[in-house]
UniProtKB/TrEMBL annotation:
GO molecular function: deoxyribose-phosphate aldolase activity
InterPro entries reported in the protein's UniProt record: Aldolase_TIM (IPR013785), DeoC (IPR011343), DeoC/FbaB/LacD_aldolase (IPR002915)
Stated name of the protein: Deoxyribose-phosphate aldolase
Pathway of action: Carbohydrate degradation; 2-deoxy-D-ribose 1-phosphate degradation; D-glyceraldehyde 3-phosphate and acetaldehyde from 2-deoxy-alpha-D-ribose 1-phosphate: step 2/2
Source species: Nocardioides gansuensis
Pfam families registered for this protein in UniProt: DeoC
Length: 326
């Protein structure tokens, strides 16, 4: 995974802005407002684009490589996680040309199990932490949760912000928590697990809040900004992702630092994944068309991608039970 990120973005560049609650609030509320009708209209327009043949085959493989194959249920077992990790490495056992997914995303107590299976395959282990999915816990508990996952071998940490604090305007509290969690991602070897910051956009109420949360997380050092936990509806949507892509594009223009984007929850069909890829290319730019900078958080999307891929190579659809259920 590339090391170019927001790792030093907040150092120096935003010191004055993040020095007090009032200055941070002035900055966030001074961001340009989001034109709701315009954002939804552009997202709908981009969603009508179609790609064919060779370009579609490339898009399907790219989308597979961008999947964080996810299981976040109370009934998760070591056996289920092992099976999921095996599928992440070889999504279509009958076709060795099928690429692996980007990561397997699990609860912290399942990190070791996933790591045992994945080894040095190149598929990352992501762990949700910081009192996922509510984000409602004392900071020391959130940091312990993060450190436990990193010590177990997590390559990536998906944290959730305290939406209550954010919606109450306690922006500095949210900023400081992200900074602290990022520090807790450090490993003894001097490297650091990559940090994805989840907003739970379905609870943020407005696109303006999505833009503010995006900038807040990026200034605090997030490697990725992520829409949702998948536990609250609406989860990922094209307009929300458009606003986040605009934010990472603008952040790069101001700081020279790239930050990734991860829509998660509710993306189940290959045709929808392709709509997101078109949007990435058109809004943020082709540099983001890479698993290091764009991911899908999904459990069922992979199967449809595989079905569509098989259709392109064989000329016929496989049944929905051809691939393992996740």
């Amino acid at each position: 995974m590339t090391t170019t990120s927001a790792s030093t973005a907040s150092a120096g560049v935003f010191d004055d802005i993040t020095s007090s609650e009032s200055s941070l609030r002035r900055f966030l509320h001074g961001l340009p407002g989001v034109d709701q009708v315009g954002a939804e209209g552009r997202a709908a327009s981009l969603g009508t684009r179609s790609i064919k043949t060779t370009a579609k085959a490339y898009a399907l493989d790219l989308a597979i490589r961008m999947v964080d194959l996810t299981t976040l249920e109370g009934q998760d077992t070591p056996g289920k996680v092992r099976a999921l990790a095996s599928k992440a490495m070889r999504p279509d056992p009958a076709d060795p040309t099928c690429p692996a997914t980007a990561a397997v995303c699990v609860y912290p107590d399942m990190v070791g199990t996933a790591k045992e299976v994945l080894g040095d395959s190149g598929v990352h282990v992501a762990a949700v932490a910081t009192a996922f999915p509510s984000g409602r816990a004392a900071l020391d508990i959130k940091l312990a949760d993060t450190r436990d996952a990193v010590e177990a071998g997590a390559d990536e940490i998906d944290m959730v912000i305290d939406r209550g604090a954010f919606l109450s305007g306690r922006y500095l509290q949210v900023f400081d928590e992200i900074v602290a969690v990022r520090e807790a991602c450090a490993r003894p070897d001097g490297q650091s697990a990559h940090l994805k910051v989840i907003f739970e956009t379905g609870e943020l109420q407005t696109y303006d809040n999505v833009r503010r949360a995006s900038w807040l997380a990026m200034m605090a050092g997030a490697h990725f900004i992520k829409t949702s936990t998948g536990k609250v509806q609406p989860a990922a949507t094209l307009p929300v992702t458009l606003v986040m892509l605009e934010a990472v594009r603008d952040f790069r223009e101001q700081t020279g630092q790239m930050v990734g984007v991860k829509p998660a929850g509710g993306i189940r069909a290959a045709k929808d994944a392709i709509k997101y890829l078109v949007m990435v290319n058109e809004v943020a730019g082709p540099d983001w068309l890479d698993p290091d900078w764009f991911r899908f958080g999904a459990s069922t999307l992979l199967n449809d991608l595989l079905m569509q891929r098989t259709k392109m190579t064989t000329g016929r659809y496989s049944g929905p039970d051809y691939f393992t259920l996740d």
